Amino acid sequence: MSSLLERLHVKFNPNSRPWTETMKLVRQVMEKRIVMNSGGHQNLITCLETLQKALKVSSLPAMTDRLESIARQNGLGSHLSANGTECYITSDMFYVEVHLDTTGQLRDVKVAHHGENPVSCPELVQNLRERNFNEFSKHLKGLVNLYKVPGDNKLKTKMYLALQSLELDLSKMAGMYWQATNASPLDKILHGSVGYLTPRSGGHLMNLKYYVSPYDLFEEGTGAPIILNENNVPRYLGMNVCVTIEGTLTMNKLPIAPLIMGTHPVDNKGTPSFSSVTSANSVDFPACFFLKFPKPVPVSQTFIQKLQNCTGIPLFDSPPTYVPLYELITQFELSKEEEEDPCSLHHNMRFYAVSYQETVTYELGKFSYNQSTGYNPNWDQNFHH
């Protein structure tokens, strides 16, 4: 044992090795090039991000590290102020300021779009105070997607102005309807000119809530009633669409200034007065305004044609594929319960309901449905989502 220790001591004793040889070995190690394929590099980044999420954020360095990591995940830049208490998450079109104190506790979060002053965002403040980094990351992704339109930065800025103009007009329409009718939140949803409007905030687009069913007004599980008021209208309750702008293959004339004139409606229904779209208040863009559903919704071929006739804008770049209504309805209902798309559906589906002294079978076929022996030929229609 003693001889072994002596040999190890001689081998690893720095005094037994010339300094020039040690420097040579260090230089060889430094000059080594480790080749890592892209897949391995991505796996390493994924592992580091997983470790980052597992770490508890309880200090200023931990908070800024997490914010910079989230910025990288969304393809954004980031840097800290000189004293390390402000973290800036940046892109060419917008930036986010996160203001912290010396212990890492949040003070404020501000968002600034190109050419605008920073504005405090309550939703982002709430996300970071609750350490809800996933939701904060979704906001950043939404801000990035807002500018995923064709063109250079100058054109993207004009498109953002067009979206702002539309949002201002929609907000005025919502305000005029309330001014004329003094409607409750539920009446706004069901009868309002634009439904119940929630303004764009952070990376969340402007939301228009246009329908809630009686079932939506009860808490899932407990059955407790949901009381709607101006301070309690959940964003994702009922049926919603988001207002945005996206690129198209054709040019469209979009206003870059609000079109509603005045602040008072012209009748007791809250109808506003609009100015005409002219070359002075609009610009041709390779883009269009969109109302986006959170999930695909079954829509009839006839209604699609009515929409196209009303707007003069084709809804599809290429002819869509139409499928039977029952398949779309079933897929739509199943998607509410599944996070991912449901599996392909069979053409004949049976559902059973047990009532007093009998079992009723509902069968959805390709061209009909049966309740016991019933038949409805109206199901033989083509729909698209």
UniProtKB/TrEMBL annotation:
One of its GO terms (cellular component) is mediator complex. GO terms for biological process: cellular response to thyroid hormone stimulus; positive regulation of transcription by RNA polymerase II. It is found in: Nucleus. Residues 46-357 form the Mediator complex subunit Med1 domain. Keywords: Activator, Nucleus, Transcription, Transcription regulation. Pfam families: Med1. InterPro entries: Mediator_complex_subunit_1, Mediator_Med1. It comes from the Eukaryota. The keyword Lyase does not apply. One of its GO terms (molecular function) is nuclear vitamin D receptor binding. Component of the Mediator complex, a coactivator involved in the regulated transcription of nearly all RNA polymerase II-dependent genes. Mediator functions as a bridge to convey information from gene-specific regulatory proteins to the basal RNA polymerase II transcription machinery. Mediator is recruited to promoters by direct interactions with regulatory proteins and serves as a scaffold for the assembly of a functional preinitiation complex with RNA polymerase II and the general transcription factors. Belongs to the Mediator complex subunit 1 family. PANTHER family: MEDIATOR OF RNA POLYMERASE II TRANSCRIPTION SUBUNIT 1. This is Mediator of RNA polymerase II transcription subunit 1. It comes from Laticauda laticaudata.
